[in-house]
User: Fold this.
Amino acid sequence: MTGRDPGESHRTATPLELLFDLTFVVAFGTAADQLAHYLAEDHIRTSLLGFSFVAFAISWAWINFSWFASAYDTDDWVFRLLTLLQMVGVLVLALGIADVFASIDEGAYVDNGVMVAGYVVMRVAMVAQWTRAARQDPARRRVAMTYVVTILVAQAGWVALAIAKTSVGTMFAWAAVLILIELGGPFLAERRKGGTPWHPHHIAERYGLMVIIALGEAILGTIAALGAIVGPEGEGWSVEAAVVGVAGVSLTFGMWWIYFVMPGGEILTRRRERSFGWGYGHIPLFASVVAAGAGLHVAAYLVEGKTELDVLDTLLTTAIPVAIYVVGLFLLYAYLTQATDPFHFLLMGMSAAVFGAAVAMAAAGVSIEWCLLVLSLVPWITVVGYELVGHRHNAQVLAELDDY
Assistant:
């Protein structure tokens, strides 16, 4: 374990990494189900606090593994067994998600004990990986030990917080401190201690695969909405069912398309120092994609008559995450390229107009399926803009980086 070559050609995700990612399908799916349930009951505080906390925990667990694997994946039996242990930890974390939401809803304290136990399992494996790297890669021993120390300090804090069972407000105040330690550890190791040999194209591919996994929740939400219409208690196949199917798939496909126009690997190859803003910036991006899928599930609750929300509120459960996703992508692109394209403001303005039209329709009492169909056009504004004009801007940005 002396570190992979960051310039290795044809470096791609391994079958083990893809298997590891499957555990996050379960974790994100559980988080989306809980979010949809509490949104449908109009428990907004529980929904926002619970989902924000859980989405960060899930995303951070994946980020910890993926960056380490990009730098030190030996794919030997030790690495594989420690990855297996981490997969077990992710599943334990997923089992604790419902407890977090329920305890926040009750308001006494945040019951995150099972989630913390899942993290303990994962971090036993992660510390073992970094300790192994410290021993076998002497040149980067300080980097590896920085990761070991910050992981242990942060985890000790989470365990203490789980045992203390403080009030919801106190818990989230201390959680903010621990999250700063979590985020600061990699920054200190990579920027102050010499860094690790992570592979730019590999890590960009890994993030793209995680976006696809998150988009799976939008497909599941679409199926849930379709099932509510055509199922035993629904009206059967109809124009409305077709509209819901087209809206859900179109929205998912548009969100996928606009993500993969961003030349992450190419720019990170040339500007490795931009990795932190890009990597951490994906955390709200992952969360917004999963939340959009949960919103489509809320639409299913509306069709079934199992929600406290009206059409407008139901639409907003999908529309707000979609807006966060689209704006987040533009911000991420601007950060990564360190360039401002006036055409992007036009695209965002047109996207906002379509977004506003969908919201206005819902406010006027138009049925949810037609509102979702209009909302699904939001990412396609950017798709069309990129295919007509934006691809030239991409080529220009990359050319300027080569000339710099």
About this structure: The mean pLDDT is 93. The chain has 15 helices and no strands.
